[in-house]
Amino acid sequence: MTYLPQPETEQIAFANVLTALGDETRLAIIGLLARNEENPMSCGQFSGVGSKTGLSYHLSKLREAGVVHVRPEGTKRYVSIRRADLDQRFPGFLDSIIATAQHLPMPREEAQSTAD
Amino acid sequence: MTYLPQPETEQIAFANVLTALGDETRLAIIGLLARNEENPMSCGQFSGVGSKTGLSYHLSKLREAGVVHVRPEGTKRYVSIRRADLDQRFPGFLDSIIATAQHLPMPREEAQSTAD
Q1: A78 with A42: CB under 8 angstroms?
Q2: Which residue ranges make up each domain of chain B?
Q3: Which residues have a Cβ under 8 Å from the Cβ of A96 and sit 6 or more positions away?
Q4: Tens digit of pLDDT for each residue in A2-61?
Q5: What is the reported pTM?
Q6: Which CATH code fits A9-108?
Q7: What ipTM did this prediction achieve?
Q8: A contacts of B96 (beta carbons < 8 Å)
């Protein structure tokens, strides 16, 4: 099984979380994940957030910072927000992010967004 | 008078705010500013957050993103959080940042932090 490194709850660093979220495409991903938090999303469900390569890049940034959990299952990967971990470490923060992220327009310049 | 550019309320971009806050030193600055929000702080009051050059760099990042207001007055500069603007644009967000920022340890590696 593919090993996808992600920090333990206590290792999640607030500055890293903020940096990972500081991107329009990644905020759009969080907005999509938040609409149906109970059900992890497969990568194919993230329509409108750019190319497969771009999505993979952005998901790795979110995963490495501890914002999302990515579970490989066969050839698919299922993504979910690490709600319990983030709420434990940074009370109120995730909800404030989601509240804004769900109202942001979808980013249009995916090429620009992945180049940073 | 020195012109210090900063975005209008409606121009503040959430991704830029998150990126500006994604740094331990800048989170420490927000934690200090939040302890006495009514009174803008002069640069000399930010003891413990590194060199004068580093502080100037970090304050410019926060100002350009729209997180803080910097008011020149003679040879001094007074810094305050843009509470009204941030609360209007991103409800609940600033308070969640402050709640965590005030409990973070002071960053020790200022040289490393300014190099990013």
Answers
A1: yes
A2: 9-108
A3: B90, B91, B92, B93, B95, B96
A4: 678 999 999 999 999 999 999 999 999 999 999 989 899 998 898 888 888 899 999 999
A5: 0.89
A6: 1.10.10.10
A7: 0.88
A8: 90-93, 95-96
